[in-house]
Amino acid sequence: MKILVTGAAGFIGSHLCEALLGAEHKVTGMDNFDPFYDRATKERNLDACRGMEGFNFVELDLKDPAATRALVEQGFDRVVHLAGREGTATSGMEDPYLYMEDNYLATLNLLEAMRRTSVGKLVFASSAGVYGNLGQVPFREDVSPGMALSPGTATKMACELMCQAFHNIYSVEVYVLRLFTVYGPRQRPDMAVSRFVGAINRRSSIKRYGDGSSERDYVYIGDVVEGLVKAVERVKGYECINLGRGDTTSLSSLIGLIEELLGQQAMVEESPIPPWSAFRTFADISKAERLLGFAPKVGIKEGLRSFIQWYRKEQKA
Q1: pLDDT, average across residues 113-137
Q2: 254 to 43, 200, 266: CA distances (angstroms)
Q3: N or C: where does the chain have the smaller number of CB atoms within 10 Å of the terminal CB?
């Protein structure tokens, strides 16, 4: 298949491109190298792909509708839309307009380009954040999303609705994948695992929100990529599908595991849990198991060990 991957230079996108190329698909990767974090890091993410047969890369901003349509007009069997503005530390609080433009407007431009060029199958990366602080766990896809906790989360919810509308009106087939907390080699530097490992390794203090009892569903990058590849192969109709591990790890336990693996004690500064942060995320993955054959294999300790090995190698490079 000929596949377009947006956000290809990012953490998840670069891993996905490698996996698709390894399965002998032709992949066009696209990224706008947003300065949210260092361009050189993203360029390194693409190094392995650039050496693989069947890979083409385009630097482009999806906020430009003409450029987006010209890209899609190249003709693709599938589009995987991973591009978007992230940033767990603010999630749109400082400049919500950027999130509206980079998430919602960019996604609308991509959907418009797809329906006008008859590219009919999309895998869209949404977020577990759409569940907000739902009390009912694990989170199931057939339960209405919770209250939006931030402007960033609100744009993801809006993107899901727009995908649904384009399926309903134009028969674009969409799998919306609600990603939980993905971690592993190349993880964005602003995310918790990356920040904690870096700070503890440097013997700097870390900020812990709350008393450490908050919980996240941490899912390893290799498992998520397997789910994404299956979604690319099987996308049909319109479905929302959770991609998590299906269990939770408390913040205190996460820090304790990192301390153990690094052989270094953390210096912890406690801060109140901010209003944009959910207390718990927990995926019901039974739908992913049924539709994608999704079966996460990597436990949290094994995954953290893999990340730390990669981190140490990067520090020496």
Answers
A1: 94
A2: 29, 12, 11
A3: C
User: What's the chain's average pLDDT?
Assistant: 94
Distance CA 237, CA 123 (A): 11
Rounded to whole angstroms, the Cα distance separating 109 from 105 reads: 6
Burial of 228 (0-12, 13-18, 19+ CB in 10 A): buried
Rounded to 5°, angle at Cα 270 from 269 and 273: 140
Average pLDDT of span 224-247? 98
**Cβ neighbours, 10 Å, residue 24:** 9
pLDDT at 89 over 70: no
Kindly tell me if the per-residue pLDDT of 88 is higher than 70.
no
Q: Which of 187, 221, 152 is nearest to 42 (CA)?
A: 187
Long-range contacts of 296-300, Cβ-Cβ distance < 8 Å, separation of 24 or more: 296/219, 296/220, 296/223, 296/244, 296/245, 296/246, 297/220, 297/222, 297/223, 298/220, 298/222, 298/223, 300/218, 300/245, 300/249, 300/254, 300/257
Structural domains present in the chain = 2-316 (3.40.50.720)
State the pLDDT confidence band at 317, using cuts at 50, 70 and 90.
low
